[in-house]
Specification:
Strand content: 15-25%
Number of strands: 20
Distance between the termini: 15 Å
Bound molecules: flavin-adenine dinucleotide
CATH class of the largest domain: Alpha Beta
Shape: globular
Helix content: 25-40%
CATH architecture of the largest domain: 3-Layer(bba) Sandwich
Number of domains: 3
Amino acid sequence: MPKVAIIGGGISGLALAYRLRQYLADVDIQILESEKNIGGKISSIHEQGFIYESGPNGFLDSNPSTLNLSKELCLSSQLSPANDAAAKNRFLLLGGKLRLLPSSFIGLLTTDVLSLRAKFSLAMERFQPRKQDSSDESIYAFAQRRVGTEIAEKLVDPFVTGIYAGDARQVSYQAGFPRLAAMEKNYGSISKGLKASRKARLATNPESGRSSGQLWSFDQGLGTLTDALADRCGRSKIRQFQASNLKHDKDNKKWIVEGGNGESESFDIAVLSCPAMQQAQILKNLDEKLADIISSIPYNSLAVVVMGFRSGDVPIPLDGFGYLTPSSENRSILGVQWCSSIYRGRAPAGSVLLRAMCGGASRPEMVDLDDDVLAKMIYRELQLSMKIQAPPYFVKVIRWKNAIPQYMVNHLDKIQSIDETLTNHPGLYLTGNAYKGISINDCVENAENTAVQISRWWNRSKERSF
Ligand SMILES: Cc1cc2nc3c(=O)[nH]c(=O)nc-3n(C[C@H](O)[C@H](O)[C@H](O)COP(=O)(O)OP(=O)(O)OC[C@H]3O[C@@H](n4cnc5c(N)ncnc54)[C@H](O)[C@@H]3O)c2cc1C
C-alpha cells in the first residue's frame, strides 16, 4: 500500500487526494497543511448575514473540471449559477465613468468605448498574419500585434488585471492565455477561433443556449467544494504540519518530509501542492537547481476589501458583474465585484455586498496600508465611480501576500526545465497553481493529471519490483 504525502491543502492538494484514492487501491494519503483551515485561497466566510469570499469568487464551466467534480461529490443541489445580468454586463472605469463593455463582437464594433480606428483594427484582425516563429511574447504585445494599442490598453490590460492582478506587458500570452495562443495557431485569428469555439459549445450543449461559459459558485460559497473534498479524503488524514525540508532515502526508496518543529515522516511518494516559494524552500537542500527555477516564478500580492452597504446608499443599478479599471486610469482599485448581484444570498435583505481588489502589479504598496486607511481610500473611490452616498456598515480587509503566481514571458521554458529535472526524482511530484494554470478549473485538472501520473508510476514500479 503506497503512502503518499501531499504538502498543501488548497484545491490542488485536495482534488489530487480525492482522485488518487480512486486510482490507487489501498493508498494511504496524508495531507500536510500548514494552516489550521483547509482550502488555501478558497475560503467562504459567513458574518452578519453576509457570505463573502476571501479569495476566488467562482469557476467557469467552459472547462468542465470543477463542475464535474462538484457533481461527483453530490453537490449539484448546492450549486449556484451567476445571475444572467452578471454574466452579460461587465463594466470598465474609463475617464472616471462606468462604461458597459460589449459582450459580443458586433457590440465591440458598435460601442462608443472604442475609437473608429480601434474598431477597424478589430474587424481586420482575421486578416492579420499568424506569428511566424514560436517565441513567446507578452499578452499586451500579442494584442498590440493583432488588434492595435488602443484595444491592448483599454480591454486587454484590465482583462489581465481581472485574472492575474498582473501587468499585461509582462504576462506571457502562451502560458497565461493558452486558448488565445491556440486560436492564433489553429485558426490564424482570434475572431475565427472564438467563432469556432462558440459554435462548438452550442453544438455540445445546445440546451444551455449559451455560447460562452457559465460562472458558478455554491449557495454557501466556494468553501462548500473544499469542505466536501476534505470530508471525502477523511478529516483524520489532514494534519496541521508545516513542511520545511524534503530528503530522499535512495536505499529504501522513501521520501522523508521534515517539519519546522523537528517532526519527520517517511512516504513512498511526495507531492508538493503549496505555493512556489514554499516548494522552493522545501526542495532547496534536495535539488538547488530545481528550487532556483521554482523560486523564479513571481507572485503578486492583493488586498481584498469587502464592503456591505445599505441598498439605498448605492444609487446606480447593480445589474452586472462589476467593473475593472485599466491601469492607464491610475486608480487605487483594480476592480470591484458586485457580489450580491452575481450570486443569490450574499447579503442580507436591504443590503448589497461589494468586493474591491487592490494592490497587484500596478499598486503593490497598497497591500501594506492599515485597514482603516485602505478602507477609507476604497470608499472614496467607490463614491467617485459608483456615486455611493454613505459609508459601508460592514468592512473586512483580507491581505494575500503572494496571492497569484505571474506567468511571465517564457514561463513555459521554466515548466519544461522543471518537468525534465523531476525525472531525476522518481516518486516526487509538483502541482498547484504556479505551473500550468491559476484558475480553480486548472488546479483541479492538473491535480487529476498528476493523480494519473502517480498511479501509473506506482503501478509500473510495483511491476518492476516483482
Ligand atoms: C483574491 C483571489 C481571487 C481569485 N479569484 C479567482 C476566481 O474567481 N476564479 C478562479 O478560478 N480562480 C481565482 N483565483 C485563483 C485561485 O483561487 C487559486 O489559483 C487556487 O485556489 C490555488 O489553489 P492551490 O491549491 O494551487 O494553492 P493554495 O490555495 O495557495 O493552497 C496551497 C496550500 O498550501 C499550504 N502551505 C503553504 N506552505 C506550506 C508548507 N510549508 N507546508 C504545508 N502546507 C503549506 C497553504 O497554507 C495553502 O493551504 C483567485 C485567487 C485570489 C488570491
